[in-house]
């Protein structure tokens, strides 16, 4: 029996994935209403294919607000959400006490696995305290692989599993090892601190790639080059690789990357190491986040007194309802008091949060009478929309489309000025 504590985004996806692999699961959260909803296959979040996976595996999952049900589980995962504050610093809060509480309920020789992302040093401190009261328990840290919008794929088919242990040179407990074998990927045991820093290291490398792409894409826009022509050449370089993340974007969003950058900067200050590159990455991210606003001023805001602005996409990326550090919301906030018509297939803004924004039920409705269309989140459905339909609805002929969700040739043929990341304005209108 596999137990899960904390039905966060991570916890819900992880427990359903475990059940889908054939394991009986007890999924615990103190929120009775949440447990009842999940029991009825009603999800509080959006992930492609997750609802179907839950329905198929529902007979193997027991959702419960009763923590004592975990006593029958020999393997217990902790997937509680670890939020960040306004400065993107991790707030572990009462999480350690939650672990100790469940440890008191756990059966003899149970294995406890921290799946939540925690700052380096957290698991060792918890381990040392558990040794005082429950020396029979084994504490493990497993690096989570959650990617919003691809959570099901990542949970069922992880590239590798990174495991933090008290003694990484010793074999993993058999019960835990057999569970991991169901996922058919390499398992990398290491000390607690290495595993905690491994997650941050992965995200640092990702940020480096994104920042490099953003820097060079901006240069492409200035000199008349096209980043989409350059990126394939880089991926054919063995030192970079075919799977390199070279897509320019509107800065870093979503929360987890920012959290890790702040963690590294904090640790560097504490231990006297250099992390000046992190400051540069954060500065670049802030600059790129404002790319759309700069284009809007260039094409619309400095020319039209009372523009109507259509915005497609409020989530920080496609296939998720998350708006954590979303460039789209930062843009919408900056556009007060202009009239904004916004559409997103998953995100609903809180009533009164943005009084200048009217959400629409379709993307076409948002464009009626608009002077400009801004595509801030490249949802797949936008690619099927014909630019001719936009020309019939819009008053203006400007499209700011960072991720090229719309067909550039069709837009140009209809007379649209089509701004995209990594392509100069001269090429956009050609």
Report on this model:
The chain folds into 3 domains: 2-185, Rossmann fold, CATH 3.40.50.720; 200-286, N-(1-d-carboxylethyl)-l-norvaline Dehydrogenase, domain 2, CATH 1.10.1040; 290-428, Rossmann fold (3-Layer(aba) Sandwich), CATH 3.40.50.720. The protein is 41% helix and 13% strand. The protein has helices spanning 9-20, 32-39, 50-57, 95-105, 122-133, 151-156, 174-181, 192-223, 227-235, 256-271, 276-289, 291-301, 327-334, 363-367, 387-393, 408-413, 425-428, and strands spanning 2-5, 25-28, 61-64, 75-78, 111-114, 138-142, 161-165, 187-191, 308-312, 339-343, 357-359, 372-375, 398-400, 417-419. Helix 8 (192-223) packs across helix 10, helix 8 packs across helix 11 and helix 10 (256-271) packs antiparallel against helix 11.
Distance between the termini: 61 Å
Beta-strand content estimate: 5-15%
What class do helices, strands and sheet pairing give? alpha/beta
CATH superfamily of the largest domain: NAD(P)-binding Rossmann-like Domain
Summarize the helices and strands and which ones pair or pack.
Blueprint: E1 2-5, H1 9-20, E2 25-28, H2 32-39, H3 50-57, E3 61-64, E4 75-78, H4 95-105, E5 111-114, H5 122-133, E6 138-142, H6 151-156, E7 161-165, H7 174-181, E8 187-191, H8 192-223, H9 227-235, H10 256-271, H11 276-289, H12 291-301, E9 308-312, H13 327-334, E10 339-343, E11 357-359, H14 363-367, E12 372-375, H15 387-393, E13 398-400, H16 408-413, E14 417-419, H17 425-428
Parallel strand pairs: 1-2, 1-4, 2-3, 4-5, 5-6, 7-8, 9-10, 9-12, 10-11, 12-13, 13-14
Antiparallel strand pairs: 6-7
